[in-house]
Amino acid sequence: MEKRKYLFAALLCAALPLTARAAQLGARFEAVSRQFSADAAARLPDLNPAAVAVFPFAADGELLKRKVNVAVEELLTEKLLREPRFRVLERGRLDDVLREQRLGLSGAMDSGTAAEVGKLAGVRLAVLGSVTRLGRSYQISARLVDTETSDVVSASIVEVPADVFDEEAARYLVLVPDTQTLSLYLAIGHAPMPVNDLGPVSAGAATAMPANVKTGFNMDSGVYAGLGIKYFPFRNWDADFAIMPKYKIGDSKKSALTNLSNPGAMAARAEGSIMRLLVNRRFGLSQVFNLYAGAGFMRFELDPSDTENTYYAPQSLTTGGSVHMEQDFGQGRYMTPLAALGLEWRPQARFGLSVLGTFPLKAEKYKWDAVLTDGSVTRTVTIWEMDYPKYMLEANLAWYF
Hints:
There is one protein chain. By secondary structure, the chain is of the alpha+beta class. The protein has 2 domains: 2-168, Rossmann fold; 181-400, Porin, CATH 2.40.160. It is built from 7 helices and 19 strands. It has helices at 2-43, 62-65, 68-80, 91-100, 111-121, 162-168, 309-312; strands at 50-54, 86-88, 125-134, 137-146, 152-161, 181-190, 201-203, 206-208, 223-234, 237-255, 267-284, 289-304, 315-316, 322-324, 332-348, 351-360, 365-373, 378-387, 392-400. The strands form 4 sheets. An 8-stranded antiparallel β-barrel has the order 6-9-10-11-12-15-16-19. Strands 2-1-3-4-5 form a 5-stranded mixed beta sheet, with helices on both faces. Strand 15 and strand 16 (351-360) form a beta hairpin. The longest helix is centred in the N-terminal third of the chain and has 42 residues, at 2-43.
């Protein structure tokens, strides 16, 4: 019981600093909105509520790319909406007026220009400001302007640690650039290889009876896993390379033939790797969902997973005769063009989950050929045959940076 108390206390102590950091930014913006409300009440007591618009804040360089100014505007708007004295203009309406006046949406607007735009938008007060980086902090300067007189009604300067701001305002920030972006992802998927049913094959008096062992669908057969990397040279285009080092099919406990005198010999089992290169086009379906369509190439490499003497030494058949494999049997090297289609859920800038389907455009078979003999007649026969995957379905877990 005492251990639980100490553990709870430790977790609480660890959580308190995070809570304090998260609340710090909100408290400072709330103080600004209250100051603006109090100063507006003192200077313009007859206006209750007063129409106010939050104009684009000025920023430059990296802050503008990461939309730090937009985050400030949104957070300050949230606080102003809670002040009874203010009636905040919808951002979309203000943007329309700015476009009509051929003014930018990235800030750097003086009080006189803001006053003119404010009149056109039908507001009496305008909030202007700027964001700058000072060492490890952001300095946020904001002022409340009377659009009738261009006078500054109230002004405030807030300095916030950059890490605190980034944590609290993450939902508004662009933490990952639109171009020159990298993404690493983990992939796990299923690549079914349909097995072709083969009938008995003979060489003189010797007959081999293929077991037609299925590739199955479980973690030990038909499933692959690996790593991939994406590079976005342009906003909605990426080059995607992935390697799946372990792909297994078949069953190590089943023989390729049903009439072997040694039922444990010649296990119908193969393994190898998959490599894939794609070029994808991204289509934004919503703020958190993306559709990917692409094309590229894929290469399979398959080999028998066991090269013991049970393959190369002659194995007796219960129906007479013997069978053995030649050296280098079952080496499958297969390259095909393919098409791809995927859906991604990206709830955060640095994190994404997706489902990807790839569709090889070339049909080919993977097979095992064996040497069958009755002592006088020798013949090469196929004892296990399947089609390379006609589709592959996988899930990806990606990190962007």
